[in-house]
Design brief:
alpha/beta
Amino acid sequence: MIVVGLVGGIGSGKSTVAGMFRALGARVLDADRIARELTRPGTAVSKRIRSAFGPEVFRAGGRIDRARLARAIFSDPKRLKQLNRIVHPAVRREIRSRLNRLSRRDPSGVVVLDVPLLLEAGSKHYRCDRLVFVAVSSAAAARRLARRSGWRPEEVRRRARFQMPLSEKRRLADFVVKNDGSRRSTRSQVARVWKQLDKETR
């Protein structure tokens, strides 16, 4: 089984690329989705977040208010590290568990990891065999983030400060997919990468 990590900047479209790999036959593990499962009301991770950040980052009913939590952590690097120490180990354990199950079930398969800050967290934790860098211009990324999340340019820059430089991510990658053109162009590039990965599993 080959484990492929997607890397790139904020707003690069990693989830879109992950979906294209899924359509070609890859299994996709989405760390954001897993984190949401692990932070549902009443879970151990949710309780630790409440203890560390207080009830003000929770909605009525016990769900985390992600916008409030984001405002709290991205204005204070120490609080961001504190949250990461709570959430990241739990997500890593769950991803490793799922990878082990997938490896037994489909030893010749391809698994794509859509994990924010994959390299910053240490890709070795996820046993990545290959890295795909999703490239996009800063202008295109800013437009996507404004449309999707309502972020202003200064918010994008503030969050980007916590990430590894894009040039370094690109240098470490085995493949590059340019994602600031048409959807058709991106899909064609993903198909070429998939063809190479498929060869490696045979």
